[in-house]
């Protein structure tokens, strides 16, 4: 697993998500509203909205909150969010991609730049590191849906390209253009997934030493906690020892 997956698993084991649930709900609501504004308010006709709702359900976001976020898209509430991608280098030269939604581009850019600088890294131009990643579809299921072999077989039948199974989840990767079809095929087999979305997957994950790994995880966590940041991806790999230490 590379940066993003390892980060998510560590936060899961630390119970970090519970500690910042209100912030998580706020980010999910923002994505639902933007998705509903950009397309149909019906999730069956709007794949991005459907993905946003799946993510919200996975975090146990109340139905009323989800519906309120959809309804907000129809109203003229004055909130217009711009989607921005930031790219940079973290400690040890690791490549990092940050996806944000903001109503104040200057504020967000200033904050993100300062986080990179304070960590010993630097923010770069758009396109500086994204060539080291593939833009792919990800369908995620909990471990309870089946063992690794069963999920792999179903994923191949559905047209997926790769599966990464761990104690926490099954991550199924496919071409970004076939995400909807792969999701529907897997849903028939395993039920509703925890997530169905486009992600940045590192082409060649880079192993880092534990000192650098700790600095990178601190930067990832700081970025994730920013109100405007929706997703963070890295191309680094942590040692098993460091993962256990940080999850403890």
From TrEMBL:
- Tell me the NCBIfam families matching this sequence: PRK00110.1, PRK12378.1, YebC/PmpR family DNA-binding transcriptional regulator
Gene3D superfamilies, A to Z:
1.10.10.200, 3.30.70.980
- Keyword Transcription carried by entry: yes
- Family annotation (InterPro entries): Integrase-like_N, TACO1_YebC-like_2nd/3rd_dom, TACO1_YebC_N, Transcrip_reg_TACO1-like, Transcrip_reg_TACO1-like_dom3, YebC-like
What taxonomic ancestry is recorded? Bacteria, Pseudomonadati, Pseudomonadota, Alphaproteobacteria, Hyphomicrobiales
Question: Could you tell me which residue ranges the TACO1/YebC-like second and third domain spans?
Answer: 81-236
What is the name of the protein in this document? Probable transcriptional regulatory protein HB375_15035
Give the UniProt family note.
Belongs to the TACO1 family.
Enumerate the GO terms in the molecular function aspect.
DNA binding
Q: Which part of the chain is the TACO1/YebC-like N-terminal domain?
A: 5-76
UniProt xrefs under Pfam families: TACO1_YebC_N, Transcrip_reg
Keyword set, alphabetical order: Cytoplasm, DNA-binding, Transcription, Transcription regulation
Can you name the source organism?
Microvirga terricola
Tell me the compartments it is located in. Cytoplasm
């Amino acid at each position: 697993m590379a940066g993003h997956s390892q980060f998510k698993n560590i936060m899961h084991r630390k119970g970090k998500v519970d500690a910042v649930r209100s912030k998580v709900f706020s980010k999910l609501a923002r994505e639902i509203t933007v998705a509903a504004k950009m397309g149909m308010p019906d999730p069956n006709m709007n794949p991005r909205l459907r993905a946003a709702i799946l993510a919200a359900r996975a975090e146990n976001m109340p139905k009323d909150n989800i519906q309120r976020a959809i309804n907000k898209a129809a109203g003229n509430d004055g909130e217009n969010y711009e989607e921005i991608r930031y790219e940079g280098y973290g400690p040890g030269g690791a490549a990092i991609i940050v996806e944000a939604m903001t109503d104040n581009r200057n504020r967000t850019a200033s904050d993100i730049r300062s986080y990179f600088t304070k960590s010993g890294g630097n923010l770069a131009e758009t396109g500086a590191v994204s060539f080291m990643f593939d833009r792919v579809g990800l369908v995620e299921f909990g471990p309870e849906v089946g063992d690794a072999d069963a999920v792999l077989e179903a994923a191949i039948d559905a047209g997926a390209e790769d599966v990464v199974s761990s104690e926490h989840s099954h991550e199924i990767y496919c071409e970004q253009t076939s995400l909807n079809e792969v999701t529907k095929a897997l849903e028939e087999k395993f039920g509703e997934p925890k997530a169905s979305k486009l992600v940045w997957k590192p082409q060649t994950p880079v192993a880092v030493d534990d000192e650098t790994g700790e600095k990178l995880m601190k930067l990832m966590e700081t970025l994730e906690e920013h109100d405007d940041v929706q997703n963070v991806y890295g191309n680094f790999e942590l040692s098993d020892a460091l993962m256990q230490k940080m999850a403890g």
